Amino acid sequence: MGSIVGLTSTIPVEIVLAAGCTPLDLNNIFITSPAPDKLIQQAEHAGFAHNLCAWIKGIYSVTLERNIPCIIAVTGGDCSNTTALAEVLERRGVKVIRFDFPLSRDREPLRGQMENLSQALGAPWSEVERVRVRLSTIRRKLQKLDRLTYEENRVSGFENHLFLVTSSDFKSDPEAYEKELDLFLSEVAKRPSLEDSMRLGYLGVPPIFSDLYEYLESVGARVVFNEVQRQFSMPFDEADIVDQYLHYTYPYGIRGRLDDIRKAIKERKLDGLIHYTQTFCFRQIYDILLRESLPLPVLTIEGDKPGKVDSRTAIRLETFVEMLRMRTGDQWF
Ligand code: SF4
Question: 166: which residues sit within 8 A by CB, 6+ positions away?
Protein backbone atom coordinates (compact mmCIF):
# COMPACT_ATOMS: atom_id res chain seq x y z
CA MET A 1 0.00 0.00 0.00
CA GLY A 2 1.39 3.38 -0.98
CA SER A 3 1.39 6.27 1.47
CA ILE A 4 -2.08 7.35 2.52
CA VAL A 5 -3.49 10.62 1.23
CA GLY A 6 -6.68 11.84 2.91
CA LEU A 7 -9.35 13.57 0.79
CA THR A 8 -11.69 16.21 2.20
CA SER A 9 -13.93 15.94 -0.86
CA THR A 10 -13.93 14.40 -4.32
CA ILE A 11 -10.82 15.37 -6.32
CA PRO A 12 -9.17 13.77 -9.37
CA VAL A 13 -8.44 10.50 -7.60
CA GLU A 14 -6.69 9.26 -10.75
CA ILE A 15 -3.74 11.52 -9.85
CA VAL A 16 -3.43 10.12 -6.33
CA LEU A 17 -3.44 6.55 -7.65
CA ALA A 18 -1.01 7.44 -10.47
CA ALA A 19 1.42 8.66 -7.80
CA GLY A 20 1.29 5.23 -6.16
CA CYS A 21 -0.53 6.66 -3.11
CA THR A 22 -3.62 5.32 -1.37
CA PRO A 23 -6.59 7.71 -1.42
CA LEU A 24 -8.79 7.80 1.68
CA ASP A 25 -12.01 9.79 1.70
CA LEU A 26 -12.07 11.26 5.19
CA ASN A 27 -15.85 11.85 5.10
CA ASN A 28 -16.54 8.17 4.57
CA ILE A 29 -14.09 7.14 7.28
CA PHE A 30 -15.72 9.56 9.71
CA ILE A 31 -19.31 8.54 9.05
CA THR A 32 -18.62 4.78 9.10
CA SER A 33 -16.45 4.92 12.22
CA PRO A 34 -17.87 3.03 15.21
CA ALA A 35 -18.48 6.24 17.17
CA PRO A 36 -18.73 9.31 14.91
CA ASP A 37 -20.23 11.29 17.81
CA LYS A 38 -17.01 10.91 19.76
CA LEU A 39 -15.02 12.29 16.85
CA ILE A 40 -17.23 15.38 16.87
CA GLN A 41 -16.74 15.77 20.62
CA GLN A 42 -12.97 15.46 20.24
CA ALA A 43 -12.99 18.29 17.72
CA GLU A 44 -15.16 20.42 20.01
CA HIS A 45 -12.73 19.81 22.87
CA ALA A 46 -9.96 20.97 20.55
CA GLY A 47 -11.83 24.25 20.10
CA PHE A 48 -14.10 23.76 17.08
CA ALA A 49 -17.32 25.67 17.72
CA HIS A 50 -20.62 23.96 18.33
CA ASN A 51 -22.15 25.90 15.44
CA LEU A 52 -19.83 24.44 12.83
CA CYS A 53 -20.73 21.68 10.39
CA ALA A 54 -20.28 18.17 11.83
CA TRP A 55 -18.42 16.91 8.74
CA ILE A 56 -15.61 19.43 9.27
CA LYS A 57 -15.22 18.33 12.89
CA GLY A 58 -15.32 14.68 11.88
CA ILE A 59 -12.63 15.19 9.23
CA TYR A 60 -10.41 16.98 11.74
CA SER A 61 -10.59 14.22 14.34
CA VAL A 62 -10.33 11.32 11.95
CA THR A 63 -7.21 12.79 10.33
CA LEU A 64 -5.44 13.02 13.66
CA GLU A 65 -6.80 9.76 15.08
CA ARG A 66 -5.60 7.83 12.03
CA ASN A 67 -2.30 9.71 11.82
CA ILE A 68 -2.95 10.65 8.20
CA PRO A 69 0.35 12.19 7.07
CA CYS A 70 -0.99 14.16 4.09
CA ILE A 71 -4.37 15.45 2.95
CA ILE A 72 -5.69 17.06 -0.20
CA ALA A 73 -7.94 19.90 0.93
CA VAL A 74 -10.50 21.15 -1.57
CA THR A 75 -10.31 24.87 -0.89
CA GLY A 76 -12.13 26.05 -4.01
CA GLY A 77 -15.49 24.74 -5.15
CA ASP A 78 -16.39 22.95 -1.97
CA CYS A 79 -16.43 24.63 1.39
CA SER A 80 -14.81 27.69 2.91
CA ASN A 81 -14.61 25.86 6.24
CA THR A 82 -12.08 23.51 4.65
CA THR A 83 -9.67 26.41 4.07
CA ALA A 84 -9.41 27.11 7.80
CA LEU A 85 -9.52 23.41 8.71
CA ALA A 86 -6.51 22.84 6.45
CA GLU A 87 -4.55 25.51 8.29
CA VAL A 88 -5.34 23.96 11.66
CA LEU A 89 -4.28 20.52 10.43
CA GLU A 90 -1.06 21.99 9.02
CA ARG A 91 -0.34 23.38 12.48
CA ARG A 92 -0.83 19.82 13.83
CA GLY A 93 1.89 18.57 11.46
CA VAL A 94 -0.26 17.26 8.59
CA LYS A 95 1.02 17.98 5.08
CA VAL A 96 -1.69 19.81 3.16
CA ILE A 97 -1.99 19.99 -0.62
CA ARG A 98 -4.64 22.45 -1.74
CA PHE A 99 -6.88 21.85 -4.74
CA ASP A 100 -9.22 24.48 -6.19
CA PHE A 101 -11.99 23.77 -8.65
CA PRO A 102 -12.14 27.08 -10.57
CA LEU A 103 -15.45 28.87 -10.07
CA SER A 104 -15.37 29.88 -13.74
CA ARG A 105 -15.53 26.18 -14.72
CA ASP A 106 -12.85 26.92 -17.36
CA ARG A 107 -10.62 24.26 -18.78
CA GLU A 108 -7.21 25.94 -18.47
CA PRO A 109 -7.31 26.80 -14.75
CA LEU A 110 -8.65 23.34 -13.97
CA ARG A 111 -5.88 21.71 -15.98
CA GLY A 112 -3.39 23.93 -14.12
CA GLN A 113 -4.77 22.70 -10.78
CA MET A 114 -4.46 19.09 -11.93
CA GLU A 115 -0.88 19.61 -13.06
CA ASN A 116 0.00 21.20 -9.72
CA LEU A 117 -1.51 18.23 -7.92
CA SER A 118 0.41 15.79 -10.13
CA GLN A 119 3.65 17.62 -9.39
CA ALA A 120 2.98 17.78 -5.66
CA LEU A 121 2.38 14.03 -5.52
CA GLY A 122 4.97 13.10 -8.17
CA ALA A 123 2.51 11.51 -10.59
CA PRO A 124 3.61 11.42 -14.27
CA TRP A 125 0.83 12.63 -16.58
CA SER A 126 1.11 9.50 -18.77
CA GLU A 127 0.39 7.39 -15.69
CA VAL A 128 -2.60 9.59 -14.82
CA GLU A 129 -4.06 8.81 -18.24
CA ARG A 130 -3.43 5.07 -17.76
CA VAL A 131 -5.27 5.17 -14.41
CA ARG A 132 -8.12 7.18 -15.95
CA VAL A 133 -8.66 4.46 -18.56
CA ARG A 134 -8.50 1.78 -15.85
CA LEU A 135 -11.01 3.54 -13.60
CA SER A 136 -13.38 4.26 -16.47
CA THR A 137 -14.12 0.50 -16.61
CA ILE A 138 -15.29 0.65 -12.99
CA ARG A 139 -17.15 3.90 -13.59
CA ARG A 140 -19.10 2.22 -16.42
CA LYS A 141 -20.08 -0.61 -14.08
CA LEU A 142 -21.37 1.99 -11.65
CA GLN A 143 -23.51 3.42 -14.44
CA LYS A 144 -24.93 -0.04 -14.88
CA LEU A 145 -25.69 -0.25 -11.15
CA ASP A 146 -27.40 3.13 -11.38
CA ARG A 147 -29.53 2.00 -14.33
CA LEU A 148 -30.48 -1.13 -12.40
CA THR A 149 -31.75 1.23 -9.69
CA TYR A 150 -34.09 3.33 -11.81
CA GLU A 151 -34.81 1.23 -14.90
CA GLU A 152 -35.09 -2.29 -13.56
CA ASN A 153 -35.80 -1.39 -9.93
CA ARG A 154 -33.51 -4.10 -8.58
CA VAL A 155 -31.19 -1.93 -6.47
CA SER A 156 -32.33 -0.11 -3.34
CA GLY A 157 -31.69 3.60 -2.77
CA PHE A 158 -29.25 2.78 0.03
CA GLU A 159 -27.27 0.29 -2.05
CA ASN A 160 -27.09 2.87 -4.83
CA HIS A 161 -25.93 5.50 -2.33
CA LEU A 162 -23.27 3.24 -0.80
CA PHE A 163 -21.58 2.25 -4.04
CA LEU A 164 -21.70 5.72 -5.56
CA VAL A 165 -20.58 7.62 -2.46
CA THR A 166 -17.56 5.37 -2.01
CA SER A 167 -16.43 5.89 -5.59
CA SER A 168 -14.70 9.09 -4.43
CA ASP A 169 -11.75 6.92 -3.34
CA PHE A 170 -12.88 3.45 -4.50
CA LYS A 171 -12.54 2.42 -0.86
CA SER A 172 -8.78 2.98 -1.22
CA ASP A 173 -8.41 -0.09 -3.42
CA PRO A 174 -9.98 -0.02 -6.92
CA GLU A 175 -9.25 -3.70 -7.59
CA ALA A 176 -11.05 -4.90 -4.44
CA TYR A 177 -13.81 -2.34 -5.05
CA GLU A 178 -14.38 -3.67 -8.56
CA LYS A 179 -14.58 -7.26 -7.31
CA GLU A 180 -17.18 -6.26 -4.73
CA LEU A 181 -19.12 -4.39 -7.42
CA ASP A 182 -18.97 -7.36 -9.84
CA LEU A 183 -20.28 -9.68 -7.15
CA PHE A 184 -23.07 -7.26 -6.29
CA LEU A 185 -24.09 -6.86 -9.95
CA SER A 186 -24.23 -10.61 -10.48
CA GLU A 187 -26.38 -11.06 -7.35
CA VAL A 188 -28.67 -8.23 -8.35
CA ALA A 189 -29.27 -9.80 -11.79
CA LYS A 190 -31.00 -12.72 -10.06
CA ARG A 191 -33.25 -10.55 -7.89
CA PRO A 192 -36.88 -9.80 -8.67
CA SER A 193 -37.77 -6.14 -9.19
CA LEU A 194 -38.57 -4.19 -6.04
CA GLU A 195 -42.19 -3.36 -5.36
CA ASP A 196 -43.72 -0.21 -6.76
CA SER A 197 -43.31 2.85 -4.58
CA MET A 198 -43.05 6.62 -4.84
CA ARG A 199 -39.90 7.47 -6.79
CA LEU A 200 -37.71 10.06 -5.15
CA GLY A 201 -34.67 12.07 -6.10
CA TYR A 202 -32.23 12.84 -3.29
CA LEU A 203 -30.48 16.20 -3.71
CA GLY A 204 -27.60 17.71 -1.78
CA VAL A 205 -24.61 16.44 0.17
CA PRO A 206 -24.77 12.83 1.41
CA PRO A 207 -26.94 12.44 4.51
CA ILE A 208 -25.53 12.29 8.01
CA PHE A 209 -28.55 10.14 8.99
CA SER A 210 -27.79 6.43 9.13
CA ASP A 211 -31.27 5.13 8.24
CA LEU A 212 -32.79 7.68 5.87
CA TYR A 213 -33.16 5.29 2.91
CA GLU A 214 -34.51 2.51 5.09
CA TYR A 215 -37.01 4.87 6.67
CA LEU A 216 -38.23 6.11 3.28
CA GLU A 217 -38.74 2.54 2.12
CA SER A 218 -40.76 1.80 5.26
CA VAL A 219 -43.23 4.54 4.29
CA GLY A 220 -43.51 3.43 0.66
CA ALA A 221 -40.91 5.50 -1.19
CA ARG A 222 -37.59 4.70 -2.81
CA VAL A 223 -34.70 6.91 -3.84
CA VAL A 224 -33.88 6.22 -7.48
CA PHE A 225 -31.60 9.22 -7.97
CA ASN A 226 -28.78 10.17 -5.63
CA GLU A 227 -27.67 13.43 -7.18
CA VAL A 228 -24.28 14.20 -5.61
CA GLN A 229 -23.25 10.60 -4.96
CA ARG A 230 -23.84 9.89 -8.65
CA GLN A 231 -21.67 12.88 -9.51
CA PHE A 232 -18.87 11.41 -7.39
CA SER A 233 -18.93 8.37 -9.69
CA MET A 234 -18.32 10.58 -12.77
CA PRO A 235 -20.75 8.81 -15.12
CA PHE A 236 -19.77 10.94 -18.10
CA ASP A 237 -17.67 8.75 -20.41
CA GLU A 238 -15.38 11.68 -21.20
CA ALA A 239 -12.21 10.72 -23.07
CA ASP A 240 -10.15 13.38 -21.32
CA ILE A 241 -9.58 13.74 -17.59
CA VAL A 242 -9.92 17.53 -17.62
CA ASP A 243 -13.30 17.27 -19.40
CA GLN A 244 -14.37 14.64 -16.90
CA TYR A 245 -13.80 16.99 -13.96
CA LEU A 246 -15.37 19.91 -15.86
CA HIS A 247 -18.48 17.84 -16.37
CA TYR A 248 -18.64 17.09 -12.63
CA THR A 249 -21.33 19.49 -11.33
CA TYR A 250 -20.85 19.61 -7.56
CA PRO A 251 -18.01 22.17 -7.23
CA TYR A 252 -19.40 24.74 -9.67
CA GLY A 253 -22.49 26.96 -9.78
CA ILE A 254 -26.08 25.72 -9.56
CA ARG A 255 -26.78 25.77 -13.32
CA GLY A 256 -25.03 22.49 -14.07
CA ARG A 257 -26.71 20.84 -11.12
CA LEU A 258 -30.14 22.01 -12.26
CA ASP A 259 -29.64 20.64 -15.78
CA ASP A 260 -28.52 17.33 -14.32
CA ILE A 261 -31.50 17.14 -11.94
CA ARG A 262 -34.02 18.12 -14.63
CA LYS A 263 -32.72 15.35 -16.86
CA ALA A 264 -33.01 12.85 -14.01
CA ILE A 265 -36.59 13.91 -13.24
CA LYS A 266 -37.66 12.92 -16.76
CA GLU A 267 -35.42 9.94 -17.31
CA ARG A 268 -36.13 8.37 -13.91
CA LYS A 269 -39.82 9.35 -13.72
CA LEU A 270 -39.44 10.95 -10.32
CA ASP A 271 -42.48 11.83 -8.21
CA GLY A 272 -40.75 14.15 -5.74
CA LEU A 273 -37.46 15.48 -4.46
CA ILE A 274 -35.82 15.50 -1.07
CA HIS A 275 -33.25 18.21 -0.55
CA TYR A 276 -30.95 17.31 2.29
CA THR A 277 -29.13 20.17 3.96
CA GLN A 278 -26.47 19.98 6.63
CA THR A 279 -26.89 22.19 9.68
CA PHE A 280 -24.52 25.19 9.51
CA CYS A 281 -23.70 24.54 5.83
CA PHE A 282 -23.69 27.44 3.38
CA ARG A 283 -25.16 25.11 0.75
CA GLN A 284 -28.53 25.45 2.49
CA ILE A 285 -28.92 28.69 0.54
CA TYR A 286 -29.17 26.67 -2.69
CA ASP A 287 -32.53 25.47 -1.42
CA ILE A 288 -34.03 28.73 -2.70
CA LEU A 289 -32.80 28.12 -6.24
CA LEU A 290 -33.70 24.44 -6.28
CA ARG A 291 -37.25 25.19 -5.15
CA GLU A 292 -37.66 28.02 -7.62
CA SER A 293 -36.30 26.06 -10.56
CA LEU A 294 -37.52 22.48 -10.37
CA PRO A 295 -40.92 21.25 -11.53
CA LEU A 296 -41.56 18.77 -8.68
CA PRO A 297 -42.48 19.09 -5.00
CA VAL A 298 -39.36 19.47 -2.87
CA LEU A 299 -39.11 18.55 0.80
CA THR A 300 -36.13 20.14 2.53
CA ILE A 301 -34.76 18.29 5.51
CA GLU A 302 -31.83 19.11 7.74
CA GLY A 303 -29.39 16.86 9.55
CA ASP A 304 -26.96 17.90 12.24
CA LYS A 305 -25.25 14.99 14.02
CA PRO A 306 -24.75 11.35 12.97
CA GLY A 307 -27.57 9.03 14.00
CA LYS A 308 -31.04 7.93 13.02
CA VAL A 309 -33.66 10.17 11.43
CA ASP A 310 -35.20 12.24 14.25
CA SER A 311 -38.92 11.97 14.94
CA ARG A 312 -39.81 15.39 13.53
CA THR A 313 -38.03 14.68 10.24
CA ALA A 314 -39.59 11.21 10.14
CA ILE A 315 -43.10 12.69 10.34
CA ARG A 316 -42.31 15.26 7.67
CA LEU A 317 -40.96 12.54 5.35
CA GLU A 318 -43.99 10.35 5.87
CA THR A 319 -46.38 13.25 5.24
CA PHE A 320 -44.47 14.22 2.12
CA VAL A 321 -44.65 10.71 0.70
CA GLU A 322 -48.36 10.59 1.50
CA MET A 323 -48.87 13.91 -0.29
CA LEU A 324 -47.02 12.61 -3.34
CA ARG A 325 -49.16 9.51 -3.36
CA MET A 326 -52.33 11.59 -3.34
CA ARG A 327 -50.89 13.83 -6.02
CA THR A 328 -50.13 10.93 -8.33
CA GLY A 329 -53.48 9.30 -7.54
CA ASP A 330 -51.83 6.12 -6.32
CA GLN A 331 -53.85 4.16 -3.80
CA TRP A 332 -51.24 2.68 -1.52
CA PHE A 333 -52.03 1.31 1.90
S1 SF4 B 1 -21.66 19.93 4.60
FE2 SF4 B 1 -21.35 22.03 3.89
S3 SF4 B 1 -20.26 23.08 5.54
FE4 SF4 B 1 -20.08 20.86 5.87
S5 SF4 B 1 -18.15 20.28 4.90
FE6 SF4 B 1 -19.77 19.93 3.40
S7 SF4 B 1 -19.88 21.84 2.22
FE8 SF4 B 1 -18.73 22.29 4.11
Answer: 25, 28, 177
Q: How far is the CA of 78 from the centre of ligand 1 (A)?
A: 7
3-state secondary structure of 274: strand
Query: Which of the listed residues 79, 209, 252, 286 should we mutate to test ligand 1's pocket, taking the one with most ligand atoms within 8 A of CB?
Result: 79
Strand bridging mode 70-76 / 272-278 = unpaired
- DSSP string covering 111-150: HHHHHHHHHHHT--HHHHHHHHHHHHHHHHHHHHHHHHHH
From 73, 94, 68, select the one nearest 9 (Cα to Cα).
73
Q: What is the per-residue pLDDT across 233-273, written as a single tens digit (0 to 9) for each?
A: 999 999 899 999 999 999 999 999 999 999 999 999 999 99
CB 311 within 8 A of CB 327: no
Return d(Cα 297, Cα 260) in angstroms, integer: 17
Q: What is the pLDDT of residues 53-66, one digit of tens each?
A: 999 999 999 999 99
Q: Which residue, by CA, sits nearest to atom 2 of ligand 1?
A: 281
**pTM > 0.90:** yes
Query: For residue 56, which atom of ligand 1 is closest to its CA?
Result: 5
- Choosing from 78, 252, 302 the residue with most ligand 1 atoms within 8 A of its CB, the one to mutate for a pocket test is 78
Q: Mind giving me the DSSP string for 180-228?
A: HHHHHHHHHHTSPPPPP-EEEEEESSPPSBSSHHHHHHHTTEEEEEEHH
Secondary structure letter of residue 172 according to DSSP = G
